[in-house]
Write a structure and sequence with these properties.
about 130 residues; Rossmann fold
Length: about 130
């Protein structure tokens, strides 16, 4: 299965203190070698903006060491296309958070399953765990 990590799930998966926040099911899916685990560049954009505004200082180590962290966890990166941008714009009718709308579009266009705790994604008609 191709799995995309929502921003907070990604943060928890790669930070020592964050690991305590993951459920057993989330940990099992993320560490199962049968799954391909993806991280969105949109999540990095969101983390960087919040960090710059002083709202999420804990992501500093992730942002400064991103490539090594992705490699160490054997995650893959996924990008954002023009087609995804058009889909993301349509999601804003149901949800006002642009980051969530962009991640939903990535899930839809790449046939990913999203690991998230954010219930709004279920309203966007995408595959979630």
């Amino acid at each position: 299965m191709n799995i995309l990590l929502d921003t907070h799930i990604f943060f928890w998966a790669v930070s020592q203190t964050g690991l305590l926040n993951l459920t057993k099911k989330e940990k099992a899916i993320i560490t199962d070698i049968e799954h391909s685990i993806y991280v969105s560049n949109i999540s990095l954009f969101e983390m960087s903006i919040k960090h710059t505004k002083g709202k999420w200082q804990q992501v500093d180590k992730i942002l400064n060491n991103y490539s090594n962290i992705i490699e160490a966890h054997q995650f893959k990166e996924t990008g954002f296309t023009g087609e995804m941008a058009i889909s993301a714009g349509k999601y804003t009718q149901q949800h006002s958070d642009p980051f969530d709308c962009m991640i939903a579009a990535q899930v839809k266009h790449n046939d990913f399953t999203l690991i998230t705790r954010d219930k709004i994604f279920s309203k966007l008609n995408i595959k979630c765990l």
